[in-house]
Design brief:
18 helices; mainly alpha; 441 residues; 2 domains; globular
Length: 441
């Protein structure tokens, strides 16, 4: 490291934390710790206090009237998770515009695998729960937890070909889109048409703002949160859908092209070098500050607002929002009667849907599309590591827990589904890791 860089004591604390956050596997590791913490809280003397805190309600008062009064658990699932889905929407748009989903020939295989990985789990669940209240949980095993699955994959490091990491990433992103559509169409309560139309009107205004060239993050934040999210929340359509739709209105273009940016930055650097610095003081001259401001403006103009937002929000989502969600939703009491666990087939359908359905769907649809010559085999992929990826796709923690909260209001049914999710995710993650590790040898 250069001697010109003055390392402060705080840097020795902050820099290791920054390196941890920048590692791909860190999000999955923290999520795992959060799930374990939630299970400890729910199965210890702190259990009563843990559940009591989540049931505390708060809202906004105006003229002796209370608005948006929900408990903390509800605010986490409808508020914080909307931020998570907003980032999912940004990732989806980026991938569709210029990422792994922009070239249909390259994207067809992970898309097919994702579709198979959604259909087969739902069918297996419905096979065990064809009717009644348990029937509503068919969407639970459809989801893949992208953070956890990629976290396990990145534990293997360079043993895994880049093409496999790209394949699993694209598969999980398409899977997220499928989960959003399932929530929108099948897990939405009674709809208030007036508020829904107002929300859609504000979305159109955001879209027009994009087309007119408005790049202010504040403009989209005010309309997105104060308008679209609020209207959707009141309308009965799940607020997370508003977050995804709002994300798709964020501009993805740049104000200045790369060559113009390089030219501007070089010009500003030359100006900065030619300015006489202040003698023996750590501060800059006004002229230096002016040049740095111009460089910052050029950098912002050369960065798409979509990517700027995604880059800024991703650490907060991975290291704050998802762990909070896991702590609030993964707290299942393990002091349950085995007979009660199998009074219906929710746990069994969920576990087999994830563990068997995901693997059959991902592997089966991939092989089918390859055999039909609709899609090509990615470099480094073989049947063994394809099965390994299929098992990693059966890790359903975050999204499956979220759909569970929408599918069932009955606490016993939620517990049964969560037990199925935990069992399948742990087994699938271990099998997937072992298969991919052996395949790499």
């Amino acid at each position: 490291m250069s001697n010109n860089y003055n390392i402060k004591p705080i840097d020795k604390i902050v820099q290791p934390m920054q390196r941890f956050i920048q590692q791909e596997k860190s999000g999955g590791l923290l999520l795992g710790i959060s799930v374990i913490l939630a299970l400890i809280l729910a199965n210890s003397p702190l259990s009563h206090g843990y559940h009591e805190i989540l049931e505390q309600s708060f809202g906004f008062r105006w003229n002796n009237e209370t608005y948006f009064e929900y408990n903390i658990h509800h605010w986490i699932n409808d508020g914080l998770m909307s931020v998570f889905f907003f980032v999912v929407g940004l990732e989806l748009k980026r991938e569709i515009i210029g990422g792994e989903l922009s070239n249909i020939r390259q994207a067809i295989l992970p898309i097919a695998a994702a579709v198979g990985g959604m259909l087969m789990p739902a069918l297996i669940y419905l096979l065990f729960n064809p009717s009644g209240e348990p029937h509503k949980g068919w969407g639970i095993p459809m989801a893949t937890d992208i953070a956890f699955a990629l976290g396990v994959l990145y534990l293997l490091g360079n043993k895994i070909p880049l093409a496999l990491k790209v394949f699993l990433t694209a598969l999980a992103i398409v899977d997220d889109l499928g989960a959003v559509l399932v929530i929108a169409f099948f897990y939405t309560s009674e709809i208030n048409t007036t508020f829904l139309l107002v929300g859609l009107l504000i979305l159109i205004i955001m879209y027009l703002g994009n087309k007119l060239g408005i790049r202010s993050i504040l403009f989209y934040a005010i309309l997105g949160i104060g308008g679209v999210w609020t209207c959707f929340l009141v309308s009965g359509v799940h607020a997370t859908i508003a977050a995804v739709l709002a994300a798709f209105t964020i501009p993805a273009d740049v104000k200045i092209k790369e060559n113009v940016f390089i030219s501007k930055i070089n010009t500003y650097l030359d100006k900065f070098k030619n300015i006489d610095p202040t003698e023996n003081t750590p501060t800059l001259t006004n002229e230096q500050l002016h040049v740095l401001e111009k460089m910052n403006e050029a950098t912002i103009a050369a960065t798409p607002p979509l990517q700027r937002l995604e880059h800024a929000m991703h650490p907060a989502v991975s290291f704050l929002i998802i762990p909070i969600f896991a702590i609030a939703n993964a707290g299942v009491s393990l002091n349950i009667d085995i007979e009660n666990l199998f009074t219906n087939n929710i746990a069994l359908g969920t576990a087999l849907g994830l563990l068997v359905g995901k693997v059959l769907g991902v592997v089966g649809f991939s092989v089918l599309f390859i055999k039909l010559k609709i899609a090509k085999v990615p470099e480094g992929m073989n049947i063994r590591n394809l099965f390994g990826l299929g098992f990693l796709a059966s890790i359903g923690f975050t999204m499956s827990l979220f759909v569970t909260s929408l599918a069932f209001s009955h606490e016993e049914f939620q517990t049964q589904a969560k037990i199925g999710i935990f069992a399948a995710s742990i087994i699938g993650g271990i099998i997937g890791y072992v298969m991919l590790n052996r395949s790499s040898r």
